[in-house]
Structures are given as structure tokens and as C-alpha cells.
Amino acid sequence: MKNTTTILKILKDILLKNFLNIVFFLLALFFVVVLRKDRVGGVEMVFLDVGQGDAILVQQDNFQILIDGGPDDTLLYELAKYLPWYDKRIEVVILTHPHDDHLAGLMLLLKKYEVGKVLYAPVNSRNAGYEYLQSEYPNLLEEVVAGDSFRYKDIYFAVLYPFEGESLQGGNLNNWSVITFFYINGYKILLMGDGEVELEEELLEYDFLRNIDILKAGHHCSKSSSSEEFLSFTEPEVAICMCGEKNKFGHPHSETLQKLKSRNVQYFVTYEEGSMRIRF
Questions:
Q1: Model confidence over 47-68: pLDDT tens digits?
Q2: Which of 45, 135, 200, 214 is least enclosed by beta carbons within 10 angstroms?
Q3: Cα distances (angstroms) measured from residue 47 to each of 78, 108, 117, 147
Q4: Cα within 13 Å of Cα(161), Cβ side
């Protein structure tokens, strides 16, 4: 008993003498663990490495926009690197089109996070996940067409495609992708979903797409996208190719990379670079 009393007295003395040090240590631990996300007033866009698929995070403060979700639960692991652990809400999700390499991760996200709304174009598709999304989350779904725009502080984006009144039936589903244009602190970013050459031609009427800063190239830098005419029109400074290593499709195609090289467009491939964070 005497030994126990002595030990408690020693511990009490240590605590009293080091009280301020302990307080500062706990505060430091709080900022490292709880507030581990860098607190910046500006905007960041993260091209998430989710394998053979697309997932792009745009955020300012604790406001997040997520474009597509990749093919599996890799999205959840990658998001955890860039979101505070306590932030379980994604304010805006954009589904470009219902192919599994863009949709599957979002279906898992809906079970783990609170989502404010899902922007999409109601294309005709028999994808099981897409049908489940429509039947189980109708209150979240918000149809968008060209001209719809959104703003949060320094983040502005507009939908460029599909056009109003267009029948989204049949044909190549890639070319029904929701195309978005972001304008952030003077930088122009064009996200092409899986849009191919035919869809690129539809966008050549948008004169403000000249001199793009960042192009998320269509269809994982496939040879079916990023035509000479489109690259000549947009003149991007940087192109992002989102694809998985040794994928069965051969993305990114060498023809597309050569076109980018010939125009001195700096390009990055997610399976080589990993997730890429760009701060504005």
C-alpha cells in the first residue's frame, strides 16, 4: 500500500510539473490527427488514382465535388487521403455516364458517405448499378443539361453537354457523357468523361474552350478521343490520362500520347503518377 501511495505521489508531481507540456502535446496531437487535412483557403482538384476508371475530387474548405467514382472500392481508400476523417459528406456528385469504371465506386460511396445530390443525364442504360441508383436514390438525382451552372466560393463549373432536348437513347454511351467546364481562379479545366471524337466535335462551338489550362482527356486517352482538330481548338497546357496499369484496353494509346507530345502538351498518366493534387 505504501509503495502504491508513493508511486501515485510521484505521478502527481510529474503531471503538475509538466502540465503545460502535456497540454501543448495534446493540442499538437489534435491538429495532426483530427485536422490532418491541409487547411488552405484556395481550391484543390485531385485526379484520383482508382485504376482503370475516373474519379476526380474538387474541394474548397469542407465543400466537395466528386466527378465519377472509378470501378471499385479504391475510391474510398483514395478519398480518405484527402478528406478529414470526420467529414463524411460529399456535397455534389457528378456521374458522367453509367459505365462501371465510372459508376461502381459511387455506389459504394453512397453507403459510406452522406451525399447532397447526384448530377447526371438520364441516358438509357441497362447497367444494374445504374438501375439501382435510379430506384433507390431518386431523391438525390438531379438531371442536368448544357447551360446549368454551379458555384461555391472560388469554384465555378458549368455543364457543356448534353444539350437540352437531346434524346439520350442508343448509340455509343461514351458520347452521352456529361461534360463539365471548371473555372477556378482564372484557370480553365475541361473534364471530358469518356467523350470521343464525335462528342468533341459538338463542343467546337464553345469559343471559351480555347487555351484550356487542364484537359482531362476523354476515354482514358484512347485513340478514339483527343482528335487533332479538338487539340488544335482547345490548346491545353496539361492533359490528364486516367487509366490503370496494364489494362486490357491498352490505354493510354500511343497515338494519342504522340499527338500530345507533338503539341508540347505536358501529360500525366495516373498509373504512373498516382493520385495528382493540383492547388489553385
A1: 999 999 999 999 999 999 999 9
A2: 135
A3: 10, 19, 21, 24
A4: 25
